[in-house]
Amino acid sequence: MTEHATTFPTTATPLSVPPSLRTYQREAVSRVVEYFRSSDEPAVVVLPTGSGKSLVIAELARLARGRVLVLAHVRELVEQNHAKYLAYGLEADIFSAGLGRRESARQVVFGSVQSVVRHLATVSDSESAHGPFTLLVIDECHRVSLEADSSYRRVIDHLRQRNPHLKVLGLTATPYRLGQGFIYHRHYHGMVRGAEDCFFRDCVFEQPLRLMVKQDYLARPLKVDAAVERYDFSRVTTGSGGLFREEELNRVVAASRATPGIIAEVIERARDRRGVMIFAATVAHAEEVLGYLPAEQAALVTGDTASDERYRLVEAFKARQLKYLVNVSVLTTGFDAPHVDLIAILRPTESVGLYQQIVGRGLRLAEGKQDCLILDYAGNPWDLYAPEVGSPKPDSDSEPVQVECPTCGHANLFWGKRDGEVVIEHYGRRCQGLVDDHGDPLDSPGKSGQQCSFRFRFKTCGDCGAENDIAARRCHGCQVLLVDADDKLRDALKLKDARVLRVSGMQLEAVVNGRGLPRLKVTYHDEDGATLNEWFALETPAQRRAFTLAFLRHHLRAPGTGWTPASAQQVCDEQWRLRAPDFVVGRRVGRHWQVREKLFDYQGRYRKADSAE
């Protein structure tokens, strides 16, 4: 083991009487120490807003043997984290232009990523008496991008050049990024959450928000239905980066007749409240909102507000010299005002993560505070306690659904739809469970394993028969380049004995064949009335197994949910469970046509039937 490979001692020797940690904070610290004793892979701790991440960071910095750098993206967080460390009676440096300090000589340094990335050589001085950094802690780590030239990645790469065994720990309340999903690959509860190429490898500890509220560590969120007119953001769409377009938001809120009534209701409901935060959709919207609030009690903070002015206004609000603080996307993280007990949301939120960040501004405990009133005037669909699925919501009707893997039994969480308790559709592709070398579920939290191989939706390799992700370009089994869907259609269209249907409908019938035996007849038809048929027998267990493999696994709207029809009539009676393919390719065999290829989840250049103008 190299000189800089170990970060934490086996047992800690207190340097002073430390602040008291809550049970979950102690467990988080313990999990991190245990993980980094055997791994150099980046790890994540998930703690809700208001749960005391600063104290966990301070304790880890105190325990660390080597040099520690704690990064944040705003000076308020740098200051908060530094203050918690000082509470141990210890000293640490601050490297942040926003705080007017550029110090990096001590063992522990708290810095802003913007300042540190511009002075990497100074901060990581190779002549430092404490040696290279051995632990990097990133607060609000969901801001770490996959882009190699991003600020955080440049800092990490630089520090790793000086110490290849650098430990990287991220802390966040919302471990996902728009356009990426989960920021870590594996969860210690034995499941895969993010992609294999996630920067953070493992989530080593997570404290649920619901439990924090139940145990009175956070104030109770009290969401009420607003009595007045709301904004209608239902037709607003997101841009390529997953964010709502400002021009579309302005189209909804600009001079809206709803705004005066909304603010009047906020003021009425705030009569007995201490601190009110209002989240507006755009700068123009925020300025209009400010105009309806009591001038001497309200202020506005935007991304264009000068740093010193923003600091002055925020401090005035914290000191309760102001009652209302209007903002546009700038106070969702790194803002600590425990007296806030009313949150008014006047903008749509792109994800449950952002919604949780906004509501979290009002959940910190304060003397005499019983709850936080949540007023949502934008019709946001998110449940504060709902788990994050990690992929974009496919449509407004989707909700998180649980789907058990038929192979390993893992309870997957996918976007989907329910009819009562029955999952009628889901969009999951692959089981998220972690299994051992024998394919059995991991029997203890944190144990290493690989992702279960069961795929709910897949495309089959024509060479080796392996099931691949529907977006895969190369087979994971034999590494052959998979035939592109457009190539399949183009090649079929060139053949005289092939028929390609752009499927506009699928019809199921329970029929009897020429020998009087029951059969399931499936008819696919296109917009011009052309058809292709296929037949299935379901009389014996072997026939039903073959039907499942050849038809159900591809056509089920909720694959893997265990539906095993026993007859053709049952399939027809419950055909709402099935989906039609986008294209069907048939080949002439004698006097008949035989279905050879069915394309689902098509994303190519040919028009699908449901895209007709």
TrEMBL record:
It comes from the Bacteria. It holds the Pfam family ResIII. InterPro entries: Helicase/UvrB_N, Helicase_ATP-bd, Helicase_C-like, Helicase_Restrict-Modif_Enz, P-loop_NTPase, Ribosomal_zn-bd. PROSITE patterns: HELICASE_ATP_BIND_1, HELICASE_CTER. Residues 262-407 form the Helicase C-terminal domain. Residues 34-193 form the Helicase ATP-binding domain. This is ATP-dependent helicase IRC3. It comes from Halomonas cupida.
